[in-house]
Write a structure and sequence with these properties.
With about 325 residues, this protein is of the alpha/beta class. The protein has two domains: about 35 residues, no CATH class; about 270 residues, Rossmann fold. The protein has 16 helices and ten strands. Strands 1-10-9-5-2-3-4 form a seven-stranded parallel β-sheet, sandwiched between helices. Strands 6-7-8 form a three-stranded antiparallel β-sheet, covered by helices on one side. The radius of gyration is 22 Å and the shape is globular.
Amino acid sequence: MVQCLELYYRQQKHQKEIAEALGVSSSKVSRLLKRAFEEGLIRVELDLPQNPRLAAALVERFRLRDAVVVPAGGRGEIKAELGAAAAAYFEKVATNGIRVGLSCGFTLYHMIRQLRERRFRDLTLYPLSGESTLRLVDLSPNTLVGMMAAKYRPHVAAYALPVQHLTSLRQIERERRRLLRDPEVRRIYEAAQTVDVALVGIGMIGGETPGFCQLAEAYGVSVRTLRKLGVVGEINYQPFDAAGKLVDRRELRPLVRRLLSVTADRLQALSRADSNYVIAVAGGRQKTAAIQGALSGRFLNVLITDEDTALALVEPKSSRG
């Protein structure tokens, strides 16, 4: 199988030539190549053309610093395609010695997988919030920081933030004060507020949605209740409405305050600064309302999304028709 791969991909031999060289049939060569793909020995990377017209329309309509729009209808999973585009964008704007903050989500997981190892030196990585839930830990900020740090070892410093699994708001506030009295925790938490590049996902409100909605259910707040309160999405575990306003309701305070998070207003401040990037990576038509709300709230200054979602954002009437 390895010989087949070497001859086919590196030496650009035809399958018939490979069969003759190895003394096997052409059909066996074909089966070996197919098996190699199924077993993960072959990785296909597509450098698909992006849509600069839609990207420019997003920048103009939402006063963004930049936007990237990946093609619709690709054969790959949309999260993987967005992750690849986000990795390429990060490597374009990043420099040695910058401070990077990470929120959570499966799309950021795909982005980190696509980063090239040891490309940068002296990076400092921070989670933008503590852990989210006791499940799906591969999506949590602390874990994604660890994954990204592995790409740049040994020339990287990475930090974590603690989590509180409490239900009473009084308990949460007491534990929050206790945590922030710890000099190391406070130093990490304050440093996370001033990162040079923040990489964030945008969460939708829907049933069986991991992350924020799953956490809300654990606190007795259903998806139906979130929608009744006007919540259309969340960013870094902070819920907002269609106008981009944070939804600060009594039912949600234990949920939001339990995390040591970089707040949405801090993301807004970072987005307004010329020297900072707040890069949101999100796509899929089902997330349009959440992305629209995040854009209205100006929680980001760079959006990486797909064509269908971008079209729904810049031409909402025509996209419905």
